[in-house]
Amino acid sequence: MYESGENYLETILMLKEKNGSVRSIDIARELNFSKPSVSRAVGILKEDGFITMEHGGEIELTESGREKAESIYERHRLLTAFLQKVSGVSEERAEEDACKMEHIISDEVFQGIKKFMK
Hints:
Elements: H1 3-19, H2 24-31, H3 35-47, E1 51-53, E2 59-61, H4 63-87, H5 91-101, H6 107-117
Antiparallel strand pairs: 1-2
């Protein structure tokens, strides 16, 4: 899966936890993307089996979508904490860099950081 797809899944998960429901317009607002861009991405995620769309336009993560989103979000949270602890940067800076890193870091390195943080 591409980084953009991972970002969409993570955003859907976070919005669902925050608001209780998610629609395409919520994603567009959160990511500051156009509605057509979000519509295209949502269509791809649906085709790939990561989300379903209800009649009212509400987006739900499938089991595989939730697993992927939770994995990405776990990486985001742990990398943010790691960067703050090790480099002493602000939470905002750590989050920005963690968002980039979470998509490219190998599982081996992630597991090492996870072990280090415990």
